[in-house]
Amino acid sequence: MKTTLSEGIYDAIIASIIQGEINSESVLTEANLIEQYQVSKSPVREALVRLCHENILVSIPRVGYKIQIVDRNYLEGIIRFRLNMEPRYLGLFFEKISEKDILRIRGSIVKMDKTVLNNPFEYWKQTSVFHLALAQSYSDKFFYDSLRRILDSQLITFAKLYWSSWSTVADNKMSDNHSAILNAIKAGDKPKAIFLLEEDIKSF
Known about the structure:
By secondary structure, this protein is mainly alpha-helical. Helix content is 64%, strand content 4%.
């Protein structure tokens, strides 16, 4: 799928936040972003509106945009919301997941080792790919788009909370949860697949 200008700017701002280039003291303005990305006002504004809508940035009148302050409670709220969405959808659409879907989802799984997961951004990017690949099997665009937005918000929160302690946290995140979920789906074991999905979501 072709990436629009606004999506490219959105992704670039998210990456800058995660990598610490934009911090809680930074102020973003339309004028600076237009100059930085050499684009017109429209895609910059679209990206900023989306980031505010997803509670990643907050608009400060006559000043600009700053990072929305989040804490562990915010992350736990995202996890609670996902626990009430993803397992239920897996249960609803379990019988519709085909062998072709299983092969496609398996292709999204990346081995969780430190050569790949060298920072929380890489970890969450890879885990998001799996959850979105599973969601794609349901052929429900609203659910897929909603989950993608939620995962983007969790990415920002997750990375900001765990960046400084990632080397310690990563030691406990090397298990292959995604393969276990997919193996349960392939075996037709719906309760086990749902249970494993819930445990994976709760792991952070």
